[in-house]
Amino acid sequence: MVLPRRANAQTLSVWCGKVEVMAIAHPVTLTFLGAAGTVTGSKYLLTIGERRILVDAGMFQGEKEWRLKNWEPLPVDAASITDVLLTHAHTDHSAYLPALVRQGFTGPIWATDGTIALTEIVLRDSAKLQESATKEAIAGGYSKHAAPVPLYDGGDVEATLPLFREVEFDAPLDLGDGVSATWVRAGHILASASIRVETPETSVLFSGDLGRHDHPILKPRATPRGAAYVVMESTYGDREHPEPEVPHEPLADAIRRTIERGGAVVMPAFAIDRTEVILYALSQMMREGRIPVVPVIVDGPMALKALEVYTDTSLDELRDGVSVTDFARLPTLEITRTSNQSKALNKRRDPRIIVSSSGMAEGGRVLHHLARLLPDARNTVVLTGFQAAGTRGRALEEGAREVKINGHYVRVRAEIVRDAEFSVHGDASDLLDWVRALDPAPETVFVTHGEPDVARILADRIEDDLDIDAAVATYGEVVSLLPAIRDEQIEEVPEEG
Ligand SMILES: [Zn+2]
User: For 138-198, what is the HEC assignment?
Assistant: First the structure.
């Protein structure tokens, strides 16, 4: 672990010396099995006596060094994990679940109703992507393995889905053994949550991914009760998102000039949430006359399924004043369901905006659009979210002159535009505000889910600005979560000798 700069680690070890005096029945430890040293693969193992609770089961994405970890067996026997608590449906938080089941996990997976609906879509898509990547690797002969196999397949997903159990927001869930968990709105994607776990001896709050203070279409995040320990994300812990007077004006400008020169706009977008937020922004721009009324094509079965969940009013997730017509019923919206419909788009020459996943251009239908449209300088690619190191999206963001798609090098002549306003992660101020609002204030914040430099910057700001100890978690490390240490408690412990 990268220790906090101040004395907290030392006080923890002093406290360890008094464990016997305090007769703590259940030592509580936290093991960082992912999203430590990187933004993906969220997995935190909370061990409370005999209980093993895994908070999130995300897949590693991006750099190969991390992706390979998806294939390593978990350092803990999956069959011994008693529960999984899920913050939200994103791949890097949920898509390891079928691999966990394949390794013997049979316990309940607790999540909100909307998260369950979205995770089902994510897992099915993930299995399909892996199966097809495996087939292509075999056919193309570019796998290093003699007989490549997917991490999991559709059968593993079907075995995972019956394990889901629905939880309500803000209602403590009794997990037995005096342990309870409470889901609180995180405002990041539909039904996303922070999870606060209370044990007989301590409490720990997992931020999950935190939304900005103002998600354009979803109910805003709420403030959870504070906890002794906080595990918090730091994706954008080193920067502030732009908040211009006219929202998304650089995007509107890019769309106007692309359409004027007869090009097409491609927006690689995460199927979940980003597609909905993009549609909302485009619909507003068209209504306000800021961009021409051109066809908007949502290409991707996963995005369409997610759109169905976002327009399911029974989930009660939309913020006041927003209705489904604001983003799901654009007059020029076209939807392509089949892959033949998707391929037919390549023949079109009319001005158009294509929204297609995946958001970091690592897979999905957006790849064939990029392969086709990147070499033409009239076109524009709009990056709409965080681009992890090692992804094609990151390469485009950093000005790559060519990218490799399906084994071929593709020249990049199209204009590349980044719209940071679409981020559904809070920026540094949002993250600090969230910690500041916690009551009681945490003893220690473990900073995770960020690139190492960024996590360090956020940890320093938590210490400097909020006067709370913060440590950057490292992959595989185990920390002891002992009771909050308070001066008056120390005085009650008799001095030895
Ligand atoms: Zn997320």
Answer: HHHCCCCCCCCCCCCCHHHHHHHHHHEEEECECCCEEEECCEEEEEEECCCCCCCEEEEEE
Same domain, 233 and 319: no
Question: How does DSSP classify residue 427?
Answer: -
Residues 137 and 188 in one domain: yes
Decide if 7 is inside a domain: no
How many Å lie between the centroid of ligand 1 and the Cα of residue 176?
28
Which mean pLDDT values do the consecutive 10-residue runs of the chain (497 residues) have? 42 34 65 88 94 96 83 92 97 96 97 97 92 79 68 96 98 96 96 97 96 91 96 91 87 97 95 93 94 94 91 91 86 88 89 93 92 97 90 96 95 95 88 96 95 93 96 93 58 50
Q: How far is the CA of 175 from the centre of ligand 1 (A)?
A: 25
Looking at residue 204, its pLDDT comes to 97
Per the structure, the count of domains in the chain is 2
Domain that holds residue 98: 25-239+424-481
Assigned domain for 320 exists = yes
CATH number for the domain including 287? 3.40.50.10890
Q: How high is the pLDDT of residue 111?
A: 98
CA of 244 to the centre of ligand 1 (A): 24
pLDDT value, residue 174: 97
The pLDDT value recorded for residue 331 is 83
According to the model, what pLDDT value does residue 61 have?
Answer: 84
Q: Ligand 1 centroid vs 495 CA: distance in angstroms?
A: 48
| Ligand 1 center to 453 CA (angstroms) | 20
Distance (angstroms) between ligand 1 centre and the Cα of 427 equals 14
Distance 188 CA to ligand 1 centre (A): 7
Determine, yes or no, domain membership for 386. Answer: yes
Q: Where are the alpha helices (DSSP H) in 77-112?
A: 91-94, 97-102
Residues 194 and 66 in one domain: yes
**How far lies 422's CA from each of 174, 285, 364, 457, in Å?**
37, 14, 20, 23
Cα(344)–Cα(302) distance, rounded to whole angstroms?
18
Distance 201 CA to ligand 1 centre (A): 30
CA of 480 to the centre of ligand 1 (A): 26
Question: Does residue 342 share a domain with residue 415?
Answer: yes
State whether 257 and 323 are in the same domain: yes
User: How far is it, in rounded angstroms, from Cα 316 to Cα 134?
Assistant: 39
Cα 210 to ligand 1 centroid, rounded to whole Å: 8
326, part of any domain: yes
Q: What is the pLDDT of residue 3?
A: 44
Determine the distance separating the centroid of ligand 1 and the alpha carbon of 233, expressed in angstroms: 10
CATH number of 100's domain: 3.60.15.10
- pLDDT at position 426 is 87
